[in-house]
Amino acid sequence: MLNESLKGQKADWESGGQYSDVRLGEVIKNGADRYVTVSAKSEDFYGTAYEVKKLYYLDIPKAGVGVLWEAEITELQTDEFTEKILAEIGQCYGIGLESIMPSGEWVQADAERQVEAQDVYEPEAGEAALTKVDGYRYLGQTTMSFKDGEIQCPVMAPMGYTTAVRETYVSASMHGVSVNISGIPTGTGDYVPLLKEGADRLYERKLNDEDVENRNVHKSAVMEMSGFDKAWYYVVDYETPDWITEEYYKEVSVNCRIVIGENYVLTCDITLRDNAFDASTNTLLKELETAYGIDLSAYYNEG
Hints:
Helices cover 22% and strands 37% of the residues.
């Protein structure tokens, strides 16, 4: 029974064209029982190799009638519970199943692919686009119109897979950093009190959110943006639960306002989510600091 199943599985994987490097493990005795692992490699949609392992266990009770059961582990479908489930199965049958756990190479390779994929910027032919700027790896520049169409001004934003450049706004999200830029006509006046009111409202909204239980909510003072005649920003940071895992992570809302001429304000809202930070985050944050005259050093990725 066991040998026939193993031969059938090996032949099936080898003939289908989807799998390679098919290997049969050694048959291991566990009292009267027998078990063995079959492994193979395949590729995901992006061409990244992953492992598939299948455990065949022939359970032979005292009555002498064998029961063959199997468990398949596909590396790209494992999660934080996989190892716990295998440990319980191993404990139930008195065997060690460490060898059936995937090596983790696909997880690492896929994480690297996702980081690299964020940097791919391929605007459609004919649409507005960001252009490279000397001295910057991630930020590009374009000219954006204000909502009334009267004036235009240059803006800088990250160039990546999610970047959108439209006539009156630019947005992008990569490496745990989201940037949204737009321009609005506005009256003249003292903007600092208005920004302070905005900081207070955002602080109160995050502190007393009825839908999400945020914690450790903080707000900064209204600060000047260096390199501009009239420009200020404020920061509200807090911890918020992930909607899937419910684990708390830090989210930072950076709100920048730059006065353009007499009656216009450029808004640049930057959101940081530290559960999506990676090895490229700090470089991007430092480029935003340089471009917009702000200080984000308190929120660098320390991982």
